[in-house]
Design goal:
By secondary structure, this protein is an alpha/beta fold. It has three domains: 2-108, 3-Layer(aba) Sandwich (Cobalt-precorrin-4 Transmethylase, domain 1), CATH 3.40.1010; 111-226, Methyltransferase, Cobalt-precorrin-4 Transmethylase, Domain 2 (2-Layer Sandwich); 230-289, no CATH class. Helix content is 42%, strand content 14%. The chain has eleven helices and ten strands. It has helices at residues 15-23, 32-42, 56-68, 89-97, 110-118, 135-150, 166-177, 200-209, 232-241, 246-257, 261-273; strands at 2-3, 26-29, 47-50, 73-75, 104-105, 125-127, 156-161, 181-186, 194-199, 216-220. The strands form three sheets. The protein has a five-stranded mixed β-sheet with strand order 6-7-10-8-9, sandwiched between helices. A three-stranded parallel β-sheet has the order 3-2-4, sandwiched between helices. A two-stranded parallel ribbon has the order 1-5. The chain starts with a strand and ends in a 19-residue tail after the last helix.
C-alpha cells in the first residue's frame, strides 16, 4: 500500500493513512529516523525498513517474498505522495509484474498544493521533479523543455528546488523561458508558509539577494501563445547562445529539433557573428568537409 504522509502539518495525515501505518507489518521508508518520528506521533509501531534510490533494486526480492506470504507492506516517502519525486517506482512495477495487488491512500502532495496556490493555469500541468544540480546540465534540461514548448507543449511547469540553488535556477528559467509569471512556494502547510508571486526575473533577483530556507516548490506559467509563430530554429539558438558556447548551443538545439548538426552549427555561427547572410561554406573550403 502506498501511503501519503504530511508535507509539514501532521494533522494532514488522513485517517486511512493512520490505519494503514498502524496495521502494517512492514513500512518501507526513505529515512527510518524520519518515519520513526511520524510513527511515534500517531502511536503506531511497525518494522521500519529503509528503501531509497541506492538500495531499491536490492530490496525488491525481499518485499515480493513478504507480499507473497501475505504480509501487509506500506510504502511512504519522507513527505507527500510516494513515487512523485521519490523512490518506489521500480518496486511498484515489480509488484504489478508479479500480479500482486497495489493500493494507495491519497493525501498531501507538495506539487499540487503549490499549483493551486500559484494562481497559474491548473490544467494541464507538468511536474518535473528537481532540476539537475549542475548549471550546465540544468540549462540543457531547460533548453530541451523549451524546444518541446516550441513544438506545441503548453503546460504549467512545476519543479522542486533546494534553497541554496533557488536563485540560480530561477535565473536560468528566466533566461530560457522568458519573464513568465511564476510562484515560489516555501514551507507549504508549515508555520512559516510563504507563497511569493511575480515574474521569473524579479523572483530570481529577490532570492539571489536573500536565499531562503525550507522546502521549496516553483511553479511557472505556460508558454504564451504569441511565440508560436516565431522561426523555431533561430529562437532556440538565440536562447541557447545566451548561456552556452556556439558549439554547445548548436549541439543542444540539434538534439532537441532533430535537425542535422552541421546545419544548426552553421546558423549558430551566423547568429553569433550577428550576420544575416548565407552561412553556407564556399565550395572547396575546409569547412565544407567538416564532420559536423
Amino acid at each position: 500500500m502506498l501511503v501519503s504522509t504530511p508535507i509539514g502539518n501532521l494533522a494532514d495525515l488522513p485517517p486511512r493513512g493512520r490505519e494503514a501505518l498502524a496495521s502494517a507489518d512492514t513500512i518501507l521508508c526513505e529515512d527510518t529516523r524520519h518515519t520513526a518520528r511520524l510513527m511515534a506521533a500517531i502511536g503506531a509501531r511497525a518494522r521500519l525498513v529503509a528503501l531509497h534510490e541506492h538500495n531499491e533494486d536490492a530490496r525488491i526480492p525481499e518485499v515480493l517474498e513478504r507480499l507473497r506470504a501475505g504480509a501487509s507492506v506500506a510504502l511512504v516517502s519522507d513527505a507527500g505522495t510516494p513515487l512523485v519525486s521519490d523512490p518506489g517506482y521500480r518496486l511498484v512495477r515489480a509488484v504489478i509484474a508479479e500480479g500482486l495487488p497495489v493500493t494507495a491512500v491519497p493525501g498531501p502532495n507538495a506539487a499540487l498544493t503549490a499549483l493551486v496556490l500559484s494562481g497559474l493555469p491548473p490544467l494541464p500541468f507538468l511536474v518535473l521533479g528537481f532540476p539537475p544540480p549542475r548549471p550546465a546540465a540544468r540549462r540543457a534540461a531547460f533548453t530541451r523543455l523549451r524546444a518541446a514548448e516550441r513544438a506545441g507543449l503548453a503546460a504549467t511547469l512545476i519543479w522542486h528546488e533546494a534553497p541554496h540553488r533557488l536563485g540560480e535556477s530561477l535565473a536560468d528559467m528566466a533566461a530560457t523561458f522568458g519573464d513568465r509569471p511564476a510562484a515560489v512556494c516555501r514551507e507549504l502547510t508549515k508555520l512559516f508558509e510563504e507563497v511569493r508571486h511575480g515574474g521569473l526575473k524579479a523572483l530570481a533577483d529577490a532570492y539571489a539577494a536573500a536565499p531562503p530556507r525550507g522546502e521549496i516548490t516553483v511553479v511557472v506559467g505556460p508558454a504564451p501563445e504569441e511565440h508560436a509563430g516565431e522561426p523555431e530554429l533561430e529562437v532556440l539558438l538565440t536562447e541557447a547562445l545566451g548561456t552556452h558556447t556556439t558549439r554547445d548551443a548548436a549541439a543542444l538545439v540539434a538534439e532537441a529539433t532533430g535537425l542535422p548538426r552541421r546545419v544548426v552549427y552553421a546558423r549558430a555561427m551566423q547568429l553569433a557573428r550577428g550576420g544575416q547572410g548565407d552561412p553556407s561554406p564556399q565550395p572547396g573550403s575546409r569547412k565544407g568537409r567538416g564532420h559536423g
